[in-house]
């Protein structure tokens, strides 16, 4: 009958730096009986020691106070997983004897209050015959691990690629900022008529690397993202009450003012704001009154 502490621990270990062999290990605990299996990951040879009571691997000198069989299994796992540089409290060695027998020695430092001593646990592993199906199963396990590693490497590669892309974009932004610091970025335009739909002031066409305006639809498109100062003066002849001049970001009004009805006299309104425009966002100005003379627009880039 299985107990709550029954478990099987798998991992990969080595006993010397590359190109020394690596081994798959399995530490199993069932009904308080411990077993250890090693498998050469290249040749698929296996060595095994099993059906061990605690007294078979723990002596009076190596007993850990109040430790269960599961605790010992976890300690052995830590010894097999630790680095090979002698820097930790756990170490491992593997000795090969005549007849292809292995001796596995797992050493750990045990600390109690101010006392420290080394405990060594020894397992003499016997070679075991391996069926072809077991070899194929082991190779499949290796391939699955390699596949997971490649997937992980691919994910890491994608993350690094994304970071490089972000850094390149940041570098381009800094270069643009640096260039912008040398050459002021601004736009000045005039309008004396409305667009074909009669809703927007139609600004004259201006050639610019930083703004796109065709002189037909009254729309200014931003090529460089950043914070801009916008100011506009609209001259008009109001024909009624409750008419407005409005500054539009896309289709959203960001500033507006009522046209001053002056009994048939000409009037003007000034609007201004500081706001951020992303690349390809649009700016336009609408007016409900009839334009008179010229109206003026000024756009100044302030920075990122």
Distance N to C terminus: 70 Å
CATH top level label of the largest domain = Mainly Beta
**In DSSP terms, counting alpha (H) and pi (I) runs of 4 or more, how many helices?**
3
Shape: rod-shaped
Radius of gyration: 40 Å
Count of individual beta strands: 18
Mean model confidence by pLDDT: 86
Kindly estimate the percentage of residues that lie in beta strands according to DSSP. Answer: 35-45%
Question: Strand pairing plus helix content: what structural class?
Answer: alpha+beta
The largest sheet, given as strand count, sense and whether it forms a barrel, is: 7 strands, antiparallel
Number of domains: 2
**Spatial sequence of strands, sheet with the most strands:** 1-2-3-4-7-6-5
Along the chain, the helix and strand elements come as EEEEHHEEEHEEEEEEEEEEE
Kindly state the percentage of residues in helix: 10-25%
Task: Label the CATH architecture of the largest domain.
Answer: Beta Complex
